[in-house]
Amino acid sequence: MLEGHVLRALLTADAQRSSLFVLHELAHGITGPGFLFGAGFAFAIATQRRWEYLLFLTPAFFRRAGRVLLLVIIGYALHIPFLSLTKMLEQATPQHWTVLFSFDVLQCIGVTLLGLRLLLLVLRSETSFIRTVVLILLAVVYATPFFWSQDLDHTVPRFVSMALNGLGASPFPLFPYSGFLLAGAAVAWRFLRHAQQGTEDRFVRNLAILGLFLVAAGYFLDWLPFRTYSSYNFWFTSPNYFWMRLGILCLLLSGLWFFESLVVHREDSDVWMPKWLIILGVESFAVYILHLVVLYGWVTNPQQNMTAWWGLKLTLGPTFIAFLGFTLVMVLISQLWHYVKKQHPILMKGIYWYLGLTVGYYFFTSPY
Question: What is the reported pTM?
Fold first, then answer.
């Protein structure tokens, strides 16, 4: 994620037209789906641990629901044009509103997780829940071309249409990207059940076979001269491309699992699985938000960010050096953030509340 965003923001336009950069973009097309797939995985783990507390309207349910709603709020807050509601209502242009309503990865995660929470509350059966998740996954994948071919602005509010498709420049609309989170939840659920039975090795091997099948099937189906939809874009709406990316994720997951099983008991396991990388992954939510502010800027630093200084101005060498420095900063911050969160949880909660209340106060009270 960090490498891809830095290169796209800083590398010169000429360099980004090269065939090497095209290959780079193909590889990085899996980053966002992987983030969503991992969110689905985390949902399954957290839900199975507290299954009995999440089937009813308990405090645990409302805490989880509140967290996913906070994801949506933060996702939209990262797009606000001004740190003032008054100024936004009086001076925001149509372009500002388009940016504000664009559906990004945090909104996609939050809305999909909230839907899963409500589904669990209604069904209250593990078997029915997993089967329904798979059915919704199939519906999302195969309805994507339909939603992307419709001009929904005349039938639903603008923020709803931008949540459903990418025609309004939303990078992670629900169709098709919620499907990756649903797939992650379904895969994790089955993996955890196999782990409880001691058959996780067999499950992971089958997952690798499934990944190969999905990649091959997606390629073969797209090769056929038949199209279900008249409006068809392979890179954005194709169900076949979705299955290929999901297959790659299954292969990566199974490959990493086997890799970990090989090195976890070795004396040099810390070399192959360094703690700084694990913590960077654990604190990926904080790193995601902070790296956007530092790299692209926010309402508090519109001209004091890496893109404002070097956007599309650096050649490959300086861009790579900027990426290494940027990553080092994010690693150090993730270490500090993780330490404070674990060792001083009350202080961390105070930091959360301070940041949230300060931004909210200025947004709702500042005239300009």
Answer: 0.95
